[in-house]
Amino acid sequence: KFIRKSRDKKITERLLRQSYIPENSFPIKPGLGSASGFRIELDNRQIIFCIPGVPKEMKSMFEYEVIPFLEDRKRNKSLRGDKFEIRKSTLLTTDISETEIEEKIKEVVSEAKKINVEIGITADPGLTKIILVAKSPDSAKANKNLKRIEEKITTKLGNYFYGKDDTLISDNLKEAIAKIGSRLTISIAESVTGGLISSIITDTPGSSRFFLGGIVSYSNYSKIKLLDIDENILDKYGAVSREVCLSMARKVRKIFNSDYALSVTGFAGPEAEYKRVGLVYCCILGPDGYEKIFEKNFPGNRCEVKFRAAQFVLNELRAAISEKYYRKERFSGRR
User: Fold this and answer.
1) Region(s) of the chain under CATH 3.90.950.20
2) What pLDDT is stored for residue 203 in this prediction?
């Protein structure tokens, strides 16, 4: 019925077989694909989940059906003889390692233990997550303790922190722009990231309100033809240099007439000289003469270097816009 109603498909015998589940089991509705999953509860402590093997379908069902079920089940479940309410959140950071986070928040970790808030850290290239789990017999207290530790951690981390739970870095960029209360615009000139930054921005609905467009100038030829970069600058400093990065940002800002402009150039590897793989220059230009150039050395393989660079420069842009907003707020407050 679900497939017929939502996808207007004729139900064949083969398709029907995918909906069969064992007796005394509970169906798990497919979000993607046509194969159902199911769960079997053996007793109060053991549950077996059976979900499709196609990776995309499996991930969707696990994220939207299995995890919420388990989280609901954990709430009010007996823990060491007491009833506990459990509240969870995930803090998202970039351009900072697990060990650096541990050092910055070690005092907060000690405080969290005293109020029954557990802290865990997981790291992926360009994204480190801090997972908080608060437990309390009272739901209001669990929420209060969770928020208290969240605030202390985010204060310690400063601009390394960019969002919570499932938000994208581009979602928070959009939010920062909305807080300004004006129609800020952004343009991008990408070399090493090959369009990845533009792709991340456009993953956020409504990004067309602030993102004017980008130019992927991967080769020197495209830098000259599309961005009008001075050939003498390329010859003198090389494509991966502060000078070329700055010129890229200036040119793309002029082309799109945007408030802010980003540019990125670097060596993602592996064909560059070993010592230079991971070297990336990022530039941000903005109103009132705002100009910042960053020299970064990102670890990892080709894809990881590209993603780290994209995350980094988008977060720096978000931070720059947020700081502009807070300066505006402080100024308004004094008046």
Assistant:
1) 169-334
2) 95
